[in-house]
Amino acid sequence: MTQIRGPGAKAHAGWLNRAAVAFVLSAFTVTAFAASDFGKCEVTGEKGSVKLTTVVPGALSVRPVLGVPGWWNGDSLDTIKDGFEYCMAANMAYRAGLDRVILVSRSFQQILTGQSQGFDIALSEITITDARKKVVNFTEPYFDSDQGILVKAGTKVDKKSLGTLRYAVERGTTAYDYIVEKIKPAEQPKVFNDPPSMYTALAAGQVDAVIYDTPNVLLRAKNSNGALEVAGRFDTGEKWGGLVNKDSPNLAAFNQLIEGLRKDGTLARLTSKYLTPELGMDPTKLPVLTP
């Protein structure tokens, strides 16, 4: 290695220092850019306009749902990069001054206990009910939903046949009580741990109908290549809200964020971009079946 001596040594040292500083700044810039991760979502609004206290500094940890295209596009937590609820979470994170969204796996039953930890909010198509509000807190509603009736194409579904069908419902959802109390079928509904299990049972002929949120079963029918159809819906007047634990310090802030997303048209834009093309039709046009 050549050793520099004399006046040139000082100049060379100064150049090295400047180069080192430039390298560090460049590396910092790249790191800062890489740290902001909102998937494929467009984020808008004023960054940092709302304050959230999150379990992971700089990130919004969200409990999603797998197997519901349009809401969460992807087959695993690692592959989901957009969808209505994902991009809703991304916009909430951005407006709270956070740099990314972290998806956290928790079962539906876990989060309903109010004891599950390690997430800030569940955006999981969860219906707001008085019974659930005794255990957890809900944000203001961000979507209206009824219960759709998913069947194999050609299955006869009308007021007379409702009591003869074998139903599938997800554990812990409002659909079970509705079927048992309102429809009173000859056979008790079969309870499953997640939507994919219900759809598998329907395909295998173990049940005749899956009762689940109307937007979700419309998505499933549209992607079934004609094998499935949504025969109608039960007008239950249900609304979805974000779920947080009772000890969460963020409920008011989440409500502020959701109200902002509604007022500036972000929720409407997300509906047009992710839901309308996926659903294949307006859910309100489905026939309402009254038990």
Notable traits:
signal; 5-stranded mixed sheet; D-Maltodextrin-Binding Protein, domain 2; 2 domains; 18% strand; alpha/beta; 291 residues; 3-stranded parallel sheet; 10 strands
How much of the sequence lies in strands comes to 15-25%
Structural class, from secondary structure content? alpha/beta
Strand order of the largest sheet: 7-6-8-5-9
CATH superfamily of the largest domain: Periplasmic binding protein-like II
CATH architecture of the largest domain: 3-Layer(aba) Sandwich
Shape: globular
- What's the β-strand tally? 10
List the helices and strands and how they pair.
Blueprint: H1 7-35, E1 59-63, H2 84-95, E2 100-103, H3 108-112, E3 121-122, H4 130-133, E4 136-138, E5 143-152, E6 167-170, H5 175-183, E7 190-192, H6 195-203, E8 209-213, H7 214-222, E9 228-240, E10 243-245, H8 251-263, H9 266-279
Parallel strand pairs: 1-2, 1-3, 6-7, 6-8
Antiparallel strand pairs: 4-10, 5-8, 5-9
Summarize the structure in words:
With 291 residues, this protein is α/β, with parallel strands linked by helices. The chain folds into two domains: 59-143 and 239-279, D-Maltodextrin-Binding Protein, domain 2; 146-238, Periplasmic binding protein-like II (D-Maltodextrin-Binding Protein, domain 2), CATH 3.40.190. Helix content is 36%, strand content 18%. It has helices at 7-35, 84-95, 108-112, 130-133, 175-183, 195-203, 214-222, 251-263, 266-279, and strands at 59-63, 100-103, 121-122, 136-138, 143-152, 167-170, 190-192, 209-213, 228-240, 243-245. A five-stranded mixed sheet has the order 7-6-8-5-9, with helices on both faces. It has a three-stranded parallel sheet with strand order 2-1-3, covered by helices on one side. Helix 2 packs across helix 8 (251-263). It holds the Pfam family SBP_bac_3. Residues 79-278 form the Solute-binding protein family 3/N-terminal domain. This is L-cystine-binding protein FliY. InterPro entries: Solute-binding_3/MltF_N (IPR001638).
